[in-house]
């Protein structure tokens, strides 16, 4: 059993290193992922922010959690794309002829997604600080925010594995991210849900992005997170489990 675990982690480190080398050779993907969220942040803070009533004097503080989720949703499209290229290029068939743990082929892409999206998040937070973002949050609150963002990234990365394995074209591999990118706009990420029509408000308050945004916002502002954090964690863990199940099922069929 111990030998099996060691074998798995050795294979995983190799697959992760391989994926990270691909990312390091195309750093423009990280830049591309950060440009759109930063553009939204600039637009909403300096152009639209004055007309939006959020009950806070610093709109960038209110806006930042949603912008971070948009950045992550943009980044996972590249996870699906990189996996699609591997599948279409036949590299998986070559790996399957080797004595390696097959699930590490997928985990390598998932973990590299965590690293690349973390870099994007750091860049966006630095820009937000330049724009006036300030947080009284302590170390524990920042660690909690980091954990929620990592879990959200993990959930979306496993979703990305499914089209990466099943898509018939490059466009199809990345198209799944468009509905996910749209979700923050129908949530409390940009405006309070109280200002929305009843039907839209009902959807906004019961979709995963709102609870995640509210949890991160409360943690960064030093407020009590109430039940939002448990709802957010339940959404993220549930999505991870369901996406992992279907991704591995599809992978086994391809194998």
From TrEMBL:
Q: Mark the transmembrane ranges.
A: 30-52, 64-85, 106-133, 139-161, 173-191, 229-247
Stretches of the chain forming a coiled coil according to its record: none
| Keyword Cell membrane among record annotations | yes
Where it mainly occurs, coarsely classed, is membrane
Where found, per UniProt? Cell membrane; Membrane
| Alphabetized GO MF terms | ABC-type transporter activity
Specify the ABC transmembrane type-2 domain's residue ranges: 28-254
PROSITE patterns linked to this entry: ABC_TM2
Q: Membrane topology type, per the record?
A: Multi-pass membrane protein
Name listed for the protein in its UniProt record: Transport permease protein
Q: Which species is this UniProt entry from?
A: Seinonella peptonophila
Which lineage is the organism of this entry classified under, starting from the top rank?
Answer: Bacteria, Bacillati, Bacillota, Bacilli, Bacillales
